[in-house]
């Protein structure tokens, strides 16, 4: 029983570490792929994830509303949308800062 409890605890810690690493990767991908246009003074308006609710971000990309070809894989788009949703107005960690220069 004790071994089982230890195994479960270790698996939970690994899952939490993987989730944090994934969130960091999503943010880096967001900055790398979206930052070129969405920096202050760029071709597009600065993006503040916290200005919209998570469902708005999700629907925006599912409906193909982005005005230009994103030139990203489906996995990359999913990661960027996840970052936007993780920091949306209705999230635990809303983010109101534009991508830094």
Overall description:
This protein has about 100 residues and is mostly helical. It has one domain (about 25-100): Cytochrome Bc1 Complex, Chain D, domain 2 (Orthogonal Bundle), CATH 1.10.760. About 60% of the residues lie in helices and about 0% in strands. α1 (about 1-40) crosses α3 and α2 packs antiparallel against α3.
Describe the protein's topology:
Elements: H1 2-38, H2 54-62, H3 74-86
Order of helices and strands: HHH
Mean pLDDT: 79
Number of domains: 1
CATH topology: Cytochrome Bc1 Complex, Chain D, domain 2
Name a few traits of the molecule.
101 residues
In short:
This protein has 101 residues and is mostly helical. 58% of the residues lie in helices and 0% in strands.
